[in-house]
């Protein structure tokens, strides 16, 4: 056989192998390669994630984007050290991405920095991009604090006292909400008083004492769990202080409907969860991502809670 | 443009002329095959696409019709339930004396999977009865709600609401459930009098979801959603994403579609939309199937197609090369044979194996070449014959001329009693003729030619009474060489007639044969009156006749032509002469060692 013929046979064989390879490698029937499943860990700052509305959005995003979620709750709510340990453990465990709801941004700064060096970290509620976090999914905390402050102004007379409950003392997001609410109240002639609650389990006792000793005109809780507790406490008093707060749980909504809560600020938890997983997945896959806008929130009152927009926000249609 | 096309055509012609037949065949076959393949592939692809789209649309419509049937059945069962509640429970009870709680509860318990609640309200929105038993929320005013107003507005109809959160009754577990409300105006009997009321059946939204979810239309995707007449979404598999503004749906446009299949471009993606209206409610089921889902992975598909095309083209080119080689090899063999023939080879084989036409062509060329050789041989033979006949003519031009003169001399000498001289002359003449004949040979030894010249001179000396003397000499070895016969005698004749005729015993003719530059030269010199150089130069010209001369120079030209005919140029006769200085004629012929004469050099030594 001539050299030319051997060359031609060689090229022919190469092309043939190329066809076969492309048929095998590219999964011709669907021509779709299955996306590699990402392992994303979600570290919350509570003890139970089952009733967390954002979880449903996260699970939807996990299905859409090809991710496997591992929800990690704390033994003690808002315990920053435990969150730090979990962060390290998940990074060592080879998580492709971590979503964190930081209990204490200051205490977690180093842990987040170390973790972010190895795997993408996305935070919810408090921005830690200064510590290396890839993204933060949150409402505009300052605007939310201001809106709640303004809501309280209507029910509190001039010179009246508004108690601002800080259920997560170390959270920078919470701190922003509180400071803006305080600012707007003070600017409008009301007294804003910070009330720090290191452990939410102690809340009822501490607050009941305060109610008896020096009842405030209104209370603003910036965190759903705290708001639920305060609403429950209010039932024990004949004339409890006006209650405002942040949250969208069924208990909170029920409290709003029954008049136990005057107004609530509610963000789209479903969207927050979805966007957090999306941000983590994109960071893990190295996909360029647009800077996300702060999540919108609404101030709902008893009279408008069943309006279409509020209804969709307060009562997620999830399956 | 025309110039460009012209240039391209010219380039193509140039390429065509430069290319081998195998290349042209291969390229042509491949081009035709690839064109055909692409045309066929494209046709099949288009046909397949149209057929697939058609089948997909039909399949999607069937699926949608099935879902529609289920949904319609579900809604009708709700309506039947409403009818049952109204006609078999509410209408049969006077509320002043009886209660409808048990009836409604029974109905609810029988359908609790589908229902959230069945409730009856008075015209003022007061709760008359509800199943399961629950308290109306303090903050709620049913008479201002949409379902209540619709029922009051069109009393003869049943009204389906869009999905909403049921907010009427207290729930100890703080549950808020999404429902679709079916409301109608009813007549309540109280103390024998009828009054208006509203029957509300709250269907569990999950019932509709169960019917609509997990519906797929094709392997490449597709989903179904449900909208009301205004385009408001009732069910969507990703409803919460839409509510959260993380996803958009073309539901408002879909509300304007008629039942059937439509194609729309939404967010840059082309998709097929199948719409079917759900009876009575005016809701629309919308099936969405992405068009060209296979092309989503365009890069991989392109790579695969590229490999297949390259493989096919190269395979075709390879096969075509082999095929065209099979066809062109005999033609190439013929071409080589023709080139060999052109190079002068006489033994060329034109018998090639291959297709019938090529073999026939080979045989034809072979036959033509054979014929050509025969013809050439015939021409050569004819030429030689012609040459021989010319020589014969030339020979015949010599003989009579000389014979008459000699015989005249013999007669004269005999009459005068000069018998000895006469005998000598006749003897020389006889000898002369014997050499002239030479048994028919045209090539004779130089020695014979010189002998011939000597006898001739003897005869002429006797005729001219010894007016001149002669001297014949030859270099060693020269007499053994060969020459055309009778080349010296005509020159001697000229020398005698034009040089010695007027000599008075002092004339001299010298013949000297020698070799010069490998050629045989016979020099005939006389000391006659000579002639002008110009005349000497023209004597050999064909048809030239010298003025005021006895001879025409024809003998000299004959010798020159014979030598030229036999040996070609540069052989022949040259004349050197000057007035009063005699004439020297040089005969130049090849030095032949054998009597065989080819082209003039064949027997040369």
Structure description:
The complex is a heterodimer of chains A (319) and B (605). Chain A folds into two domains: 32-137 and 269-294, Response regulator (Rossmann fold); 141-246, Rossmann fold (3-Layer(aba) Sandwich). Chain A has eleven helices and eleven strands. Chain A has helices spanning 3-25, 53-65, 80-92, 109-118, 141-155, 172-187, 203-213, 224-234, 250-258, 269-285, 308-314, and strands spanning 38-43, 67-72, 97-100, 121-124, 135-137, 161-166, 191-196, 218-221, 242-246, 263-267, 297-301. In chain A, helix 3 (80-92) runs parallel beside helix 4 (109-118), helix 5 (141-155) runs parallel beside helix 6 (172-187) and helix 7 packs across helix 8 (224-234). The model of chain A has no long low-confidence stretch (mean pLDDT 87). Chain B has 605 residues and is of the alpha+beta class. Chain B has helices at 2-18, 21-90, 101-110, 146-153, 205-212, 239-243, 251-254, 298-342, 356-415, 419-437, 446-463, 489-500, 533-538, 554-567, and strands at 115-122, 127-131, 158-160, 164-165, 178-190, 193-204, 223-227, 233-235, 260-266, 269-277, 284-290, 443-445, 468-474, 482-484, 507-516, 519-526, 572-577, 583-590. In chain B, strand 15 and strand 16 form a beta hairpin. The longest helix of chain B is centred in the N-terminal third of the chain and has 70 residues, at 21-90. Chain B is rod-shaped. The chains are: A alpha/beta (319), B alpha+beta (605).
Helix content of chain A: 40-55%
DSSP strand tally of chain B: 18
Helical element count of chain A?
11
Domains counted in the coordinates of chain A: how many? 2
Q: If you compute it from the alpha carbons, what radius of gyration of chain A comes out, rounded to the nearest whole angstrom? A: 25 Å
Strand content bin of chain B: 15-25%
Number of distinct beta strands of chain A:
11
Largest sheet of chain B at a glance? 6 strands, antiparallel
The residue-averaged pLDDT of chain B reads 84
């Amino acid at each position: 056989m001539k050299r030319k013929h051997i060359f031609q046979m060689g090229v022919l064989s190469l092309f043939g192998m190329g066809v076969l390879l492309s048929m095998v490698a590219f999964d011709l029937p669907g021509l779709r390669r299955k996306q590699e499943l990402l392992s994303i860990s979600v570290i919350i700052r509570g003890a139970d994630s089952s009733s967390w509305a954002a979880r449903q959005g996260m699970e939807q995003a996990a299905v859409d984007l090809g991710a496997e979620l591992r929800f990690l709750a704390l033994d003690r709510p808002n315990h920053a050290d435990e969150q730090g340990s979990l962060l390290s453990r998940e990074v060592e465990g080879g998580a492709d991405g971590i979503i964190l709801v930081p209990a204490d941004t200051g205490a977690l700064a180093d842990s987040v920095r170390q973790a972010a060096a190895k795997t993408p970290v996305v935070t919810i509620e408090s921005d830690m991009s200064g510590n290396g976090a890839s993204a933060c999914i949150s409402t505009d905390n300052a605007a939310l604090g201001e809106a709640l402050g303004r809501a309280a102004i209507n029910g509190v007379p001039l010179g009246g006292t508004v108690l601002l409950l800080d259920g997560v003392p170390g959270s920078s997001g919470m701190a922003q909400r509180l400071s803006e609410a305080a600012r707007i109240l003070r600017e409008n002639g009301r007294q804003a008083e910070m009330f720090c609650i290191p452990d939410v389990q102690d809340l009822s006792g501490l607050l009941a004492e305060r109610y008896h000793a020096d009842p405030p005109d209104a209370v603003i809780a910036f965190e759903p769990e705290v708001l639920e507790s305060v609403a429950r406490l209010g039932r024990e008093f004949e004339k409890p202080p006006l209650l405002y707060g942040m949250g969208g749980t069924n208990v909170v909504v029920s409290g709003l409907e029954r008049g136990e809560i005057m107004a609530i600020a509610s963000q789209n938890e479903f969207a927050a969860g979805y966007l957090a997983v999306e941000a983590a997945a994109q960071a893990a896959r190295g996909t360029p991502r647009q800077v996300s806008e702060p999540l919108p929130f609404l101030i709902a009152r008893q009279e408008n809670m069943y309006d279409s927009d509020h209804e969709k926000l307060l009562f997620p249609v999830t399956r | 443009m025309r110039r460009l096309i012209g240039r391209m055509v010219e380039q193509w012609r140039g390429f065509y002329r430069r290319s081998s037949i195998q290349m042209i065949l291969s390229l042509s076959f491949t081009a035709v095959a690839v064109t055909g393949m692409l045309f066929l592939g494209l046709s099949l692809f288009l046909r397949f696409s149209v057929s697939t789209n058609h089948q997909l649309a039909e399949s999607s419509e069937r699926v949608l019709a099935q879902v529609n049937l289920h949904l319609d059945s579900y809604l009708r069962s709700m309506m039947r339930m409403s009818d049952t509640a109204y006609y078999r429970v509410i209408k049969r009870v006077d509320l002043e004396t009886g209660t409808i709680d048990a009836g409604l509860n029974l109905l609810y318990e029988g359908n609790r999977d589908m229902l959230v609640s069945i409730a009856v309200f008075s015209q003022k929105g007061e709760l008359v009865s509800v199943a399961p038993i629950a308290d109306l929320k303090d903050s709620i005013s049913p008479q201002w709600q949409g379902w209540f107003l619709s029922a009051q507005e069109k009393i003869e109809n049943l009204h389906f609401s869009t999905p909403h959160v049921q907010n009427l009754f207290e729930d100890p577990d703080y549950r808020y459930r999404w429902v679709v409300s079916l409301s109608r105006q009813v007549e309540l009997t109280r103390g024998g009098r009828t009054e208006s009321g509203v029957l509300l059946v709250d269907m569990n939204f999950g019932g509709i979801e169960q019917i609509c979810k997990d519906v797929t239309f094709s392997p490449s995707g597709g989903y179904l959603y449900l909208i009301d007449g205004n385009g408001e979404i009732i069910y969507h598999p990703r409803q919460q994403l839409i509510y959260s503004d993380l996803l958009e749906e073309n539901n408002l446009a879909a509300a304007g579609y008629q039942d059937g299949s439509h194609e729309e471009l939404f967010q840059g993606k082309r998709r097929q939309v199948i719409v079917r209206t759900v009876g009575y409610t005016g809701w629309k089921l919308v099936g969405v199937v992405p068009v060209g889902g296979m092309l989503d992975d365009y890069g991989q598909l392109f790579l695969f197609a590229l490999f297949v095309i390259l493989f096919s083209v190269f395979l075709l080119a390879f096969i075509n090369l082999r095929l065209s080689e099979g066809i062109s090899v005999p033609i190439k063999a013929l071409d080589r044979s023709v080139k060999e023939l052109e190079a002068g080879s006489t033994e060329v084989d034109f018998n090639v194996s291959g297709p019938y036409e090529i073999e026939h062509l080979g045989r034809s060329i072979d036959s033509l070449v054979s014929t050509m050789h025969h013809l050439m041989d015939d021409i050569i033979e004819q030429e030689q014959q012609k040459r021989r006949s010319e020589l014969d003519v030339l020979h015949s031009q010599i003989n009579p001329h000389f014979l008459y003169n000699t015989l005249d001399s013999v007669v004269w000498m005999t009459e005068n009693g000069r018998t000895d001289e006469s005998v000598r002359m006749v003897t020389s003449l006889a000898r002369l003729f014997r050499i002239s004949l030479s048994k028919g040979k045209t090539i004779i030894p130089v020695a014979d030619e010189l002998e011939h010249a000597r006898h001739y001179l003897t005869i002429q000396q006797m005729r001219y009474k010894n007016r001149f003397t002669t001297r014949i000499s030859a270099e060693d070895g020269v007499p053994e060489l060969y020459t055309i016969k009778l080349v010296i005698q005509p020159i001697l004749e000229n020398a005698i007639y034009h040089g010695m005729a007027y000599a008075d015993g002092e004339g001299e003719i010298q013949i000297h044969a020698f070799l010069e530059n490998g050629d045989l030269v016979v020099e005939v010199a006389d000391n006659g009156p000579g002639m002008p150089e110009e005349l000497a130069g023209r004597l050999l010209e064909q048809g030239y006749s010298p003025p005021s001369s006895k001879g025409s120079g024809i003998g000299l030209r004959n010798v020159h032509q014979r030598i030229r005919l036999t040996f070609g140029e540069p052989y022949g006769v040259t004349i050197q002469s000057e007035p009063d200085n005699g004439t020297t004629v040089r005969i130049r012929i090849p030095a032949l060692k054998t009597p065989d004469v080819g082209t003039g050099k064949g027997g040369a030594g």
